[in-house]
Amino acid sequence: MENKKGGDLICRRPETIIEARFSLTKKQNDVLDMVFASIKNDDNLQYEIDISKYAKLYNIQDKSNIYGDVKKTVRTFEGKGFSVTQKITNKKENRIYFAWFSSINYIGGEGKIIIELGQTLKKLLLSAKKACFYQIKYPINFNNIYSKRIYYYLKSFEDTGWRVDNLDSLRSKLECPKSYNRFADFRKHVLTPAFQEINGESDISFKYEELKTKRKVTGIKFYVKTNKPKISNKVSSKFADAASEVSATIMEPEENNSLKKVMNIISEHNITKLEAKKIYDSSKGNLDIIYKVYQDKKDKQAEGIVGLMISLVKPGVYIEPKKNCAKGSFNDYEQREYNFDELEKQLLNGSDDKDIEKIYK
Checking phi first, is residue 127 left (phi over 0); if not, alpha (psi -120 to 50) or beta? Predict the structure, then answer.
C-alpha cells in the first residue's frame, strides 16, 4: 500500500473493516477513524492519538469534555475484538479473531493516548485490495451509528456510483436488532437517518431503490454522487484511482461548471462527478460530441453507460448514424469488463467476494 495523502485528518478505512460484521457504537467508530488516519505503511505498531487535533472537528460549542469522552471510549475497546471470515470452499471457511488493540497507554495530563496494533492485524489492514478515503470531519459529526456505517459503504463505491446489497446481509453486517427484520422499521431507523445525515452533512449524497422478489424487499440498490471537489491539489497517477474519493483534483470553477453540464446531459443515468470528469476528459472537452453520443446510445444502454461513453467520445471514434441507415451494432464498441446484471444477481443472492471477483475478471 502506498502511504496515504493528506495527513492525519484523512482516514483510510480498508474494505476488510468496512464490510466486516461487528457492533461498535458511534464513539467507538470515531476512535477507529482516528487510529486508521494514523496508520502508515511502515514497521511501526504504536500510534499516538492526539485529541487536540480532532477536537476542532466536532461541531459542538463545548469541547472541554472531548478528551474525557474519547478516553472513556477507548477504555471500552479493552478486551474487545472482531472476527474476519474468509471462505475457502462452499463447505470450508477460515475465521480469524483479532483484538482491536494489543495495548493502550493513557498519557495523563497531555491529552494523548498511544495504542498498539497487533502485527497480523496491521498487515491485514494494509494488505486490503480496496479502501475508502474520507475526511474525518464528516462521519465524526454523524449522530446515528447507521449513518456512519452506511457512509463508509457508500464512500467505498463512490467511484462506481452505485452498489447493491442483499437486505439480509446488510442487516447482519450492521448488527441490526431482530425488530428491523420488518422492512418498515429498517427503513425508519436505518435508511432514513442515514439519508438525512449523509445527504445534508457530508461530501457525498445518495438515494436508494428497493429491490423486490415476489413483492418482498430483498435488496437495496444505492446510487452515490459526489457533492463537491475534495481536498488535495495533486495526486500521483498511481495513487489517483484509490484516493479519488477524497482528493483527485481541486477543479477550477470553469471545469467544475463543465462537469455539471456533462451530468445534465447524461441526466437519465446516475453518474458521479468523477465519472463525468472521465467522460469530459476523454472527449477533450467536446460537450457537443458527448450530447450526440448520449442521445444515440442512452436508450440502448441501461447499465455500463459510463464505459461506453468514455470509449465513444474520444476524438475520431464516434461516427454519427446517417438517416434511413441502420445504426452500428452495440457490440461494435468497447464495453466495460464486467456484467452488471450478473453482478447485481450475485449480490442479491448473498454471494461471497470470490464469486463477485470472477465477474470483474
Answer: alpha
